[in-house]
Write a structure and sequence with these properties.
The complex is a heterodimer of chains A (about 325) and B (about 350). In chain A, α2 (about 40-45) packs parallel to α8 (about 205-220) and α4 crosses α11 (about 275-295). Chain A has a single domain (about 1-295), classed as 3-Layer(aba) Sandwich (Rossmann fold), CATH 3.40.50.970. By secondary structure, chain A is of the alpha/beta class. Chain A has helices at about 1-20, 40-45, 60-65, 70-80, 115-125, 145-155, 185-190, 205-220, 250-260, 265-270, 275-295, and strands spanning about 55-60, 105, 135-140, 160-165, 170, 175, 195-200, 225-230. Chain A is globular. Chain A has a 6-stranded parallel β-sheet, with helices on both faces. A two-stranded antiparallel sheet of chain A has the order 5-6. In chain A, β3 (about 135-140), α6 (about 145-155) and β4 form a beta-alpha-beta unit. With about 350 residues, chain B is of the alpha/beta class. Chain B folds into 2 domains: about 1-185, Rossmann fold (3-Layer(aba) Sandwich); about 195-330, 3-Layer(aba) Sandwich (Rossmann fold). Chain B is built from 12 helices and 14 strands. In chain B, the strands form 3 sheets. Chain B has a 7-stranded mixed β-sheet with strand order 3-2-4-5-7-6-12, sandwiched between helices. A 5-stranded mixed β-sheet of chain B has the order 9-11-10-13-14, with helices on both faces. In chain B, strands 1-8 form a two-stranded antiparallel sheet. In chain B, α7 links the parallel β6 (about 145) and β7. The radius of gyration of chain B is 20 Å and the shape is globular. The chains are: A alpha/beta (about 325), B alpha/beta (about 350). At the A-B interface, β2, α5 and α6 of A face α3, α4 and α5 of B.
Chain lengths: ~325, ~350
């Protein structure tokens, strides 16, 4: 299990480090919101899910997309704006999708996918399906009205959904306590009538366990929505490949605790060094392959501008 | 078999038949399951199809629009009902940023087959926020279809089309049109997107009436006839995709176009139709145009002001008379009892 989690964390970290490294070349034609520092939440949640379970994300969804099994080649090609991208170059980094892996979309507008996740869960319940939906959003989304409307409806209908708030404390550059009178996201969620728990410091194994329990309860029909507030930390700037500690809205010392407690580094200590090298080599090969794939993929043909506006067949 | 049905019953029957045909069709919205059943358009559906497929919602237009989209992504075909179009302003993020764009920004991996029914109110003091015809907002955005059926026949056929359509459809009703009666086949049929209907032929002027204004245009046509002017009246039915071919072909014949909108003129459906026709015909023949719509103010509830806020058959006839004869003739027909609009007494 340690190997599995390590590989998932390492893979996402390395993919994003590679994105950051390539970014100055301007080959990536999309603003990137890197998950570096926050990977543990996506990995902990998605390792606990079944392939048929569904996730919805945010504009910071590289980690979620990869953790849920989204195709890496198609993700990098999408960032490059190439026709083999997951959205044929028409979505970009902020709208990753892999319907086969049940990564059902991500929005550039904060909070926007929460009700879609709820609606998907409504459909699953109506269709008597066994799957569960997980809605990912940041602490910024809690400020939005649609968050509250969605919580209310999800609990009203006892829907098969887990809400995962990735609380990294900042909405762009504004701290939670400059936006909320109280630091009580879980209280707000539980007020709508669902169990809510705060999970501290990127605790990937605890997140995994909690999601396992939550989805088991939901699948057995015993419980409706569950809310998890996962504390985490973004190490890079809000958007872009660099650090932003010189901006002054936060200090490097604040980040240091998170760097020290990085779950990837901690898990590495539990793994046989030979096994670890093998994992890392595999990941490096996969990443090299994905970037080469993106490089050689063509840009979309110009008629592609006008496709996918409406259904072709029905017109 | 074809019977005479009200617009309300046509909408109800279309929903009922589609829900029976396809288990993925669900209906929800504020009060769809309450005793008034959205003017009767959802009556009996709860009893027949159960509370999982027919349900009233919390007052959460924003989230419930997202719920409709998410359910559609999972394979359902939701009909989301709003008893006033004004309430759609609470749902714009989901409609514009997600419903309209999902097929495109996800590279064709998903589709969002939702129907958003909404009603425009008029008269009896509906006032500022119960009277707006805001469909041009949605015509502006690629990825949304917009339909505003006028007759009970089109109400049924367009709703069935909207439900079966794989794209999001904004289905716009007018509260006064709910009282219309007309022939409606009992069988299932569709009214195809992007096809306008010439409701009456004429050679002097093309008169396009949108939504409720189609009725006022037909009345105006009768007044004009008495003055020796023959108007060709067109109902666009679908505003997006818009059948500009039919309208432009008519104007090529008449050389005159008056578009009467059930909304404001500025940046509205009438502006779009006139622009498209002129672009199409400017090198072929000279064309004179006129637009009529709501006065450029907020809708007042008091009857004395509300009366002059809306175009009606006599003001339309007067404007078209000038368009055809040229100049400002001051001609305005005396109102005929048989051409008066339906007098509605609220509350609604």
């Amino acid at each position: 299990m340690h190997e599995r989690f390590y590989k998932a964390l390492y893979r996402i970290r390395r993919v994003e480090e590679e994105i950051a490294a390539v970014y100055p070349s301007d080959k990536i034609k999309s603003p990137v919101h890197l998950s570096i520092g926050q990977e543990a939440v996506s990995v902990g949640v998605c390792e606990a899910l079944c392939p048929d379970d569904v996730v919805f994300g945010t504009y910071r969804s590289h980690a979620l997309y990869l953790a849920k099994g989204g195709n890496l080649r198609r993700m990098i090609a999408e960032l490059y704006g190439k026709v083999d991208g997951c959205a044929k170059g028409k979505g970009g980094s902020m709208h990753l999708i892999d319907a086969q892996a049940r990564v059902m979309g991500a929005s550039a507008v904060v909070g926007t996918t929460i009700p879609q996740a709820v609606g998907f869960a409504y459909a699953l319940k109506l269709q008597r399906k066994d799957s569960v939906v997980v809605s990912f959003f940041g602490d910024g989304a809690v400020d939005e009205g649609v968050f509250h409307e969605s919580m209310n409806f999800a609990t009203l209908k006892s829907l098969p959904i887990v809400f995962v708030c990735e609380n990294n404390f900042y909405a762009i550059h504004t701290h939670l306590l400059r936006r909320h009178k109280r630091d009580n996201i879980c209280e707000r969620a539980s007020a709508y009538g669902m169990p809510a728990e705060r999970i501290p410091e990127n605790d990937v194994l605890r997140i995994y366990e909690r999601v396992k329990e939550a989805t088991a309860g939901i699948r057995s029909g015993d419980s409706g929505p569950v809310f998890l507030e996962c504390l985490t930390y973004r190490l890079k700037e809000h958007v872009g490949p660099n650090e932003d500690f010189t901006l002054g809205y936060r200090h490097r010392e604040e980040a240091q605790t998170w760097i020290t407690n990085d779950p990837m580094a901690r898990l590495a200590g539990f793994i046989d060094p030979g096994e670890r090298r093998r994992i890392e080599n595999d990941v490096e090969l996969e990443i090299r392959d994905a970037f080469a794939f993106a490089e050689q993929s063509p840009f979309p043909d110009l008629p592609e501008l006008y496709t996918d506006v409406f259904d072709h067949e029905a017109k | 078999m074809t019977r005479d049905l009200s617009y309300v019953d046509a909408v109800r029957e279309a929903t009922d038949q589609e829900m029976e045909r396809d288990a993925s069709v669900i209906v929800f919205g504020l009060d769809v399951d309450d005793p008034k059943a959205i003017q009767g358009t959802t009556r009996g559906l709860l009893e027949k199809f159960g509370a999982e497929r027919v349900f009233g919602t919390p007052l959460s237009e924003d989230a419930m629009t997202g719920v409709a989209i998410g359910a559609a992504l999972a394979g359902l075909r939701p009909i989301h009902v709003h008893i006033r179009m004004d309430f759609l302003m609470l749902a714009m993020n989901q409609l514009i940023n997600i419903a309209a764009k999902s097929r495109y920004m996800y590279g064709g991996q998903v589709q969002v087959p939702i129907v958003v029914r909404s009603m425009i109110g008029k008269s009896w003091g509906q006032g500022a926020q119960h009277s707006q015809g805001l469909y041009s907002f949605f015509m502006h955005v690629p990825g949304l279809k917009v339909v505003a059926p006028t007759t009970p026949y089109d109400a049924k056929g367009c709703l069935i089309q909207a439900v079966r359509d794989n794209d999001p459809v904004m289905y716009v009703e007018h509260r006064i049109l709910h009282f219309q009666r007309g022939p409606v086949p009992e069988s299932l049929y569709t009214v195809a997107p992007g096809k306008a209907r010439i409701t009456t032929t004429g050679s002097d002027v093309t008169l396009v009436g949108i939504s409720y204004m189609q009725l006022e245009c037909l009345r105006a046509r009768s007044y004009l006839e008495s003055a020796g002017i023959y108007a060709e009246v067109i109902d666009p039915i679908w505003l997006s995709p818009l059948d500009i071919d039919t309208i432009a072909e008519s104007v090529r014949k008449t050389g005159r176009l008056c578009v009467v909108d059930n909304g404001w003129v500025t940046c509205g459906a009438s502006a779009e139709i006139v622009a498209l026709v002129v672009e199409r015909l400017q090198s072929i023949r000279s064309v004179v145009v006129r637009r009529l719509g709501f006065a450029p103010v907020t809708c007042p509830p008091t009857p004395s002001l509300e009366d002059i806020y809306y175009p009606n058959a006599t003001t339309i006839a007067s404007a078209v008379y000038d368009l055809v004869r040229g100049g400002d003739n001051g001609w305005r027909p005396k109102q005929r009892v048989d051409l008066q609009e339906i007098q509605f007494r609220g509350p609604f």
